[in-house]
Amino acid sequence: MYGPIFFVTILGAFHEIAAASQHINKDLTNHYNARFHVYEEPYSIDFTYHNYEQMSRFLRTTSLRFQNLTALYSIGKSVKGRDLWVMVVSSSPYEHMIGKPDVKYVANIHGNEAVGRELMLHLIRFLVTSYGSDPYITWLLDNTRIHILPSMNPDGFEVSKEGYCEGGQGRYNARGFDLNRNFPDYFKQNNKKSQPETEAVKEWVSKIQFVLSGSLHGGALVASYPFDNTPNSLFQSYTSAPSICPDDDVFQHLSLVYSRNHGSMYQGLPCSPSQPGFKNGITNGAQWYPLTGGMQDFNYVWNGCMEITLELSCCKYPPASDLQFYWEENRVALIKFLAEAHRGVRGFVIDENGNPIERASIKVKSRDVSFLTTKYGEFWRILLPGMYKLEVYANGYLPRDVEFRVVEQHPTSFNVTLYRASRHPGEDETGSNFYNGNRDHINRDHVIHFRPHSGTNTASETNSGIFSSISNGFNSFVNNWFG
To answer: Which whole-number Å values give the CA distances from 267 to 283, 298, 336, 362, 409, in the listed order?
Structure first.
């Protein structure tokens, strides 16, 4: 559906009548000037807001100038037909580096939250111009493929207004849908009609095994982590109770990595007296306020990708004169966060002949979130130092448990060999020694198997009737104030 952007060069001479020849020569001259003029001008980007055409021009210019470090592709189109551009920045931009993780940033999911959109353009410029001279950036790009979607909601951005710190103008897509309430939800049924921007992201993450992700927003200053939603009843939903996921320790760590490397987020100061402060600049999403259909929960539950939400500015669309300040506040944090993809455990699942096993199910015991290996048999799991047990299953193979230790200094690497199961005709394939591989889910089938424990996460029936209406009204009120 999507691939690199190629610029087609017309070569050769056309010997027709003189007028036609002159016309063609003029077109060729314009084409070559457009292509190679980018090498004559200094490569830079101003601290100003860039509309869709300006953003697209910058991305194309970057892809031409840094062809060995970047690849530009579109994952789909917005309601109004604008491309959802993604730029890969890596020393291997066009091909997955076997054994090395893919990570991503997604910005401007709410069109009027504009800071993240501009920060992504500056991050691209910083990465490509630092490669080869900055050892840390060089290492990061040599060992990671970074995918950057600067604007998931280009239609909303085009109708947003600079200087508007609050409100909802431009927040939604061109059909009036909140894209961060438009994804499948683990806890409650999401009846919102799926939008083209959401469908594009869902297909995108189904095809690439992303290990780590950041969703960039505005309207607060905090790093928020899963779960965003809760199974609790209406009146329990707004009592500031966290909704704890199986990897709560890792998500808190990832959030703290961003917060502590940020210029001021770690202080946890509220944006206004009417808003809460956040200890260490982080929060559980549901403890802040619950929402249904959020992107970070979808990434984690459906795709095994650990995503947090980064609220980067108290003002949603601050004056352009503030952008350089926000870049300096976030520059180190944006880079250090992505490097966390190299923490934990990684390896390959192979058969007895050394061949990779695709779609093997991987789960860390007591962290009941399963995810699948890639076509190369690769797996990654971000974990903090400690002892763990990996549970590995694959269709037609005997399951296997592997104990391992994670240390602070570097990721733990190993291969898991699975052996084919010998079965007699009529044998029950669902027995304890044989994994049937019964995965009928959409996309790459990363499945969450846990159910919340009693206490702060007690499941209850879906809200309905007047209580559902009250809940929806409250959510609409909250949405206009927060990201």
So the answer is: 13, 29, 18, 37, 27
C-beta contacts of 264-269 below 8 A and 24+ residues apart: 264/221, 264/329, 265/221, 265/222, 265/223, 265/329, 265/333, 268/222, 269/221
**pLDDT for res 463:** 36
Tell me how far apart the alpha carbons of residues 264 and 329 are, in angstroms, rounded to a whole number: 7
Task: Count Cβ atoms within 10 A of the Cβ of residue 10 and give its class: 0-12 exposed, 13-18 middle, 19 or more buried.
Answer: exposed
Q: Could you give the CA distance from residue 204 to residue 197 in angstroms, rounded to a whole number?
A: 11
Residue type, 312: L
**Residue 213: closest CA among 183, 243, 169:** 183
Asked whether residue 461 carries a pLDDT value surpassing 60, the answer given is no
pTM comes to 0.82
Of the listed ranges 82-86, 323-327, 353-357, 426-430, the least confidently predicted one is: 426-430
| pLDDT for position 416 | 97
**Does the active-site annotation cover 158?**
no
Cβ(177)–Cβ(193) below 8 Å: yes
Q: In degrees rounded to 5, what are phi and psi of residue 323?
A: -65, -40
pLDDT in tens, 208-265: 999 999 999 999 999 999 999 998 745 444 557 899 999 999 999 999 999 999 999 9
Q: Are 236 and 127 in contact (CB under 8 A)?
A: no
Catalytic choice (307, 311, 340, 378): 311
Give the C-alpha separation, 313 to 284, whole Å.
Answer: 18
Who has greater pLDDT, 444 or 372?
A: 372
Q: Compute the distance between CA of residue 291 and CA of residue 288 in angstroms, rounded to an integer.
A: 10
**For residue 211, what are the contacts with CB-CB under 8 A and spacing of at least 6?**
101, 102, 103, 305, 306, 341, 380, 382
